[in-house]
């Protein structure tokens, strides 16, 4: 009966047979049924009678059940590359009394074609480095939105827009702002953007913020949220900027040149074998003090007596894909070290102990005339936190994003002094004045 949750026991058995690692590699995270119902209900008013609806990564088929209950007579099609998922969907749909055409195939395949009124679902979130190299290369050639480090779900969006005029898909919140999602945002705008609706943080059992993207020819550009009770609330208009989109109004702006013009941003050492190279207490002549992202706090780095045996040639010989970097990046009197996992507010400190940070950190190597303490003050300021956090809210920091931070004109003497004193209140004042001076030049 409509209003009753379907029997998802087949799905539970399917997922229980997968290890957490397998689920992560496949991007298999089922959507709470109330989300499916809310999204289909929102979409229904824009669809014709007895529409054709396709789920390109159907899992256990719950999106198709929600569509069948809300839109009687709909023609339903579900794809999934996992035979176990198709088996679970077959059982789940049968128990719910729903008929659909289920296809065990990759919906991103070169010869796979559908004509539909709407494409719905929750495509897999998979980073390109987790795909087989030849498979990733083929997808990146086939889909125009697949650029550099974009997520696999970008390909599903492009495929959905090829199949149907209306699309409703769950995506990562970071697609709104990531540089690597720029091509995806442009493709969506070309097809029509009906809205972006945030989901509660507890929606999925994973450390990721999610949204529902609605595409359609009406191009309504609504912004809102889907509540835990299944309601859809419209708060206003989605802010669509050249560099990012926002559901919370216009993005804060800062004047100035780019941080990348006065400092290079490098990931720390990628050694490829932590047990072999990283250890506590000094043991070998090649040992250098190191730190990890979790050791970096605002203003200071916690000393954990950790060392890395810095043997770049040995690292490269054993695993050619590693990146030991050049010692000159690290062996300097002062440099800024940035934690690689921070979220909406950057966490950084000035290192004065010539540490060789690991790959959970970034190192900012200032130009000869740039003061690392001034850079630190900017990174930890409220002004940069507001600018950065509204654009790049992903847990993992990316060097290309840090390099885009606007910086005020020098001199930064007062900013550096406030940073050295760890004076947060004074820092905010002098940073605000520096940006105001730059805007009025």
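-> sequence recovered:
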């Amino acid at each position: 009966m409509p209003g009753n949750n379907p029997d998802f026991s087949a799905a539970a058995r399917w997922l229980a047979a997968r290890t957490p690692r397998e689920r992560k590699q496949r991007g298999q995270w089922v959507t709470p049924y109330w989300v499916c119902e809310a999204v289909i209900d929102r979409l229904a008013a824009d669809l014709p009678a007895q529409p054709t609806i396709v789920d390109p990564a159907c899992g256990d088929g719950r999106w198709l059940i929600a569509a069948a209950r809300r839109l009687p007579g709909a023609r339903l099609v579900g794809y999934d590359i996992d035979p176990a998922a198709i088996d679970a969907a077959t059982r789940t749909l049968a128990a719910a009394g729903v008929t659909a055409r289920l296809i065990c195939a990759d919906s991103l395949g070169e010869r796979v074609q559908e004509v539909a009124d709407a494409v719905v679902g929750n495509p897999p979130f998979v980073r390109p480095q987790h795909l087989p190299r030849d498979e990733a290369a083929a997808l990146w050639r086939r889909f125009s939105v697949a650029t550099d480090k974009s997520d696999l779900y970008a390909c599903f969006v492009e495929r959905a827009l090829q199949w149907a005029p209306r699309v409703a898909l769950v995506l990562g919140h970071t697609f709104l702002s990531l540089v690597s999602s720029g091509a995806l945002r442009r493709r969506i705008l070309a097809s029509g953007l009906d809205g972006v609706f945030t989901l509660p943080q507890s929606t999925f059992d994973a450390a990721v913020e999610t949204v529902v993207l609605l595409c359609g020819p009406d191009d309504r550009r609504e912004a809102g949220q889907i509540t835990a009770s299944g309601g859809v609330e419209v708060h206003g208009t989605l802010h669509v900027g050249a560099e990012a989109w926002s559901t919370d109004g216009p993005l804060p702006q800062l004047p100035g040149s780019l941080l990348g013009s006065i400092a290079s941003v490098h990931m720390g050492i990628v050694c490829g074998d932590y047990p072999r190279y990283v250890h506590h207490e000094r043991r070998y002549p090649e040992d250098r003090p190191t730190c990890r992202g979790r050791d970096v706090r605002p203003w200071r780095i916690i000393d954990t007596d950790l060392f890395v045996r810095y043997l770049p040639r040995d690292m490269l010989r054993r695993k050619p894909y590693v990146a030991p970097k050049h010692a000159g990046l690290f062996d300097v009197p002062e440099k800024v070290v940035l934690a690689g996992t921070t979220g909406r507010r950057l966490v950084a400190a000035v290192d004065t102990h010539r540490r060789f940070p690991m790959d959970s950190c970034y190192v900012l190597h200032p130009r000869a005339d740039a003061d690392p303490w001034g850079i630190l003050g900017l990174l930890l300021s409220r002004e940069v936190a507001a600018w950065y956090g509204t654009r790049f809210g992903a847990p993992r920091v990316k060097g290309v994003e840090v390099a885009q931070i606007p910086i005020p004109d020098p001199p930064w003497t007062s900013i550096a002094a406030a940073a050295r004193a760890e004076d947060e209140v004074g820092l905010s004042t002098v940073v605000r004045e520096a940006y105001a001076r730059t805007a009025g030049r």
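The chain has two domains: 9-246, 257-439.
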